[in-house]
């Protein structure tokens, strides 16, 4: 075989191989026969989400978005799992303080920590944000990162919600888990952007949502690298580092992701700025707000609730083109079976 023929064969082989290995956005999307978002009832809101994904992932669409730019961010409390009657991370903090109180007699000198020891949630909440922070600091600091992670795992394995009797990490929203999976199947990278603690979330988010620790953004306390029992470790210290809420969420997205998302989902006015930042970008954008309207299967609350307060988003959202999900109407199922 002469060199010219060999060269042509190699070029042909490389051409075929190149077609097989081209970037995902240059290939025709493989459509699945499985129902999309099965726990979402048919209607305008489900269609809005499906249509957005369809147009942004279809090659040749005027709204096509390359896979590298398909970023979706989600709040956690009240968006991916329940948050009533108070944040579940606070439930962990209270249980930890109760358990460790015999080793810390000085905690009885603090009205807030004494309330936690007594299980008096109103006593904690009466001090507002400062009360919550004091309990969280007592339960999250003075230990290595590994010790904290193990404490959270142990708690999740045994703790039950006071009203539902369910394990806290079973109270995730099946429709949102389906949405996360559907987005990833269509080339989106999914991130958690939560006002909750980043270290708390990183312990269990991957198992619950399929979101790895490095795609979790949250509030944080400071830490330092020091020797513990003869080995170097990360030790959590009692000082706030970053509050990932309200105006902090776009900042956290910028610092951790470095790109403006094209999808943002939340459930409270604490998420307003995240949805605003996302949907004010150029090109196709989607904002989603979960409105808790289902008192039978979950909890019904919005503008009057001290937890997950939603008022401004309900007022402004429709005019901004945000999808307002009515939990009672739009979801056929709330928690996984």
From TrEMBL:
Gene3D superfamilies associated with the record: HAD superfamily/HAD-like (3.40.50.1000)
- Spell out the PROSITE patterns in the cross-references: PROKAR_LIPOPROTEIN
> Which top-level group of life is the source organism from?
Bacteria
Q: Which Pfam families match?
A: HAD (PF12710)
Which SUPFAM superfamilies would you find in this protein's record?
HAD-like (SSF56784)
Its protein name is Haloacid dehalogenase-like hydrolase
